[in-house]
Amino acid sequence: MEKQLHEVGKRKNAVARVYLRPRASEQGVIRVNDRSFEDYFPRPTSRMIIMQPLELTSTVGRFDILVNVQGGGLSGQAGAVKHGISRALLDVDPAFRPILKKAGHLTRDSREVERKKYGLAGARRRYQYSKR
User: What's the order of all strands across the beta sheet hosting 5-11?
Assistant: First the structure.
């Protein structure tokens, strides 16, 4: 792989543009919106979610990963980055497909927030009933 690879990952309202490059230093660097990976995602669960496809395919530290992510919250953004990295790894080696597919990383998680209905406090939550 000489050039960089580009893929898009999505989750909820978040969209992540992921760029995989051959590593320039001894360790692969992950940068999210021009910030370090640990700085952008302070929650360890978010970092774990993002690292899952790399750990499954044993490619941790093999690439410099640059991510532009926007929309949604940090949880949705972490899912979008995971989806984008998984799709980019397929371009690196198509043999990763069965591993990533079995783990469910290639499917875009289609769960969205249910809309609020009129006459209700939320999507399904009713207003408190008052007898008197």
Answer: 5-11, 14-22, 63-70, 30-32, 35-36
Q: Please give the Cα distance from 70 to 105 (Å, whole number).
A: 20
3-state secondary structure of 66: strand
Considering the four listed CATH numbers 3.40.50.150, 3.30.230.10, 3.30.70.330, 3.30.70.260, the one that applies to the domain covering 5-103 is: 3.30.230.10
- At 81, list the tokens: 């980055």
Domain ranges of the chain: 5-103
Alpha helices in the chain (DSSP H): 37-40, 44-56, 74-92, 97-103
Using one digit for the tens of pLDDT, what is the confidence trace for 51-89? 999 999 999 989 999 999 999 999 999 999 999 999 999
